[in-house]
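Changelog-linked ticket: nicotinamide-adenine-dinucleotide example.
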Amino acid sequence: MTRTTESRAMQGKVALVTGAAGGIGAAVVRAIAERGGVTAAVDANSVALKETTEPLAAEGLRVEAFVADVTRPDDVEATVTAVEARLGPVDYLVNAAGILRLGDARNLSDTDWADTMAVNATGVFHMSRAVVNRMVPRRAGALVTVASNAAGTPRTQMAAYAASKAAATMFTKCLGLEVAEFGIRCNLVAPGSTDTPMLSSMWHDHDSGRETTVRGSLETYKVGIPLRKLATPREIADAVVFLLSEQASHITLHALTVDGGATLGV
Ligand SMILES: NC(=O)c1ccc[n+]([C@@H]2O[C@H](COP(=O)([O-])OP(=O)(O)OC[C@H]3O[C@@H](n4cnc5c(N)ncnc54)[C@H](O)[C@@H]3O)[C@@H](O)[C@H]2O)c1
């Protein structure tokens, strides 16, 4: 049995998902569409976006592709306007677009720092502002930002990334505080190592990279993953969908860590 038949809990809802051509974003798009939602799949990579959305549409799931760069405020505004004109008022926003640039904090280039902040922090600001301003008069909506367990745990080589995710985390919580009175909920999912192209880009060799990630490494102060496995994109998507759903109707300003115990629940 596919999940399509399991639940139609998001029937008629309109979702906008950024980073929709990536591992986690694509899983979120699928999870929402399988629950009956209509999803605007937004990504800067037009080729990958087409490859992600066409098979879903061919399965009969309601997904439409919108190419946009979250670092560009005009692009974001125009895209949200186009999504609402085409699909209707946005009920759910998922900020999943992200980039990872590795490097020692002391040697990071200006470009790597600026690009990381532009996508992971400012991109979340642009898209959340555009969507939530439209939700406020309707007094309804839910937003989930996909941050990272690195937002709260120092990691070697990840200073720019972790700082950008910490910024996105606090932005999302402060926004959520301001719009709670309108019934709009703003939460975060903080994944740990998840089996996507972003994670494998950190590895020199696929098999040993996977094994070291799970086992941990004392030299880099990583304890490994107590559940002894990487997350699948679907496991992250399930947490996102929960926080969007009515089952989370009294949850806001919350960061849900989904990392198999890698940050020891701290
Ligand atoms: N994979 C992991 O281990 C992991 C762990 C923690 C957090 N995350 C976070 O989860 C989210 C999804 O990551 P993923 O693993 O699926 O990565 P991914 O690289 O597979 O996907 C990221 C997507 O974001 C898109 N994107 C990048 N810049 C963009 C921009 N300026 N505008 C619009 N789209 C843009 C890319 O084209 C890509 O499709 C990211 O925010 C990432 O930081 C991932």
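Closing comment: Example verified and attached. The chain has a mean pLDDT of 96. Residues 208 and 225 are 15 Å apart (CA to CA).
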